Fold this protein.
Amino acid sequence: MKTCYTCKGKILKKNISVEVSGIMIQDIPVEVCERCGETYFTTSAATFIQNVAKFVESRKRELMPIPA
Ligand SMILES: [Zn+2]
């Protein structure tokens, strides 16, 4: 069984919502420590969040008005 790196507590799998650049992404699978609440992202979840963040930032730049 997996344990927390910080407190050696029990790790539980759950799905959470994560806000990335003002956008909510639902149902991200993570592992959360039952004792201290430390959240561990799986590699694929972390990569997915990074990709969404990059996409959102690039779109934002396109939509941003040109500074005077
Ligand atoms: Zn912990």
Notes: The chain has a mean pLDDT of 91. Residues 4, 6-7, 9, 33, 35-36, 38 surround zinc ion (CB under 6 Å). The first helix runs from residue 43 to 63. Residues 1-35 form one domain.
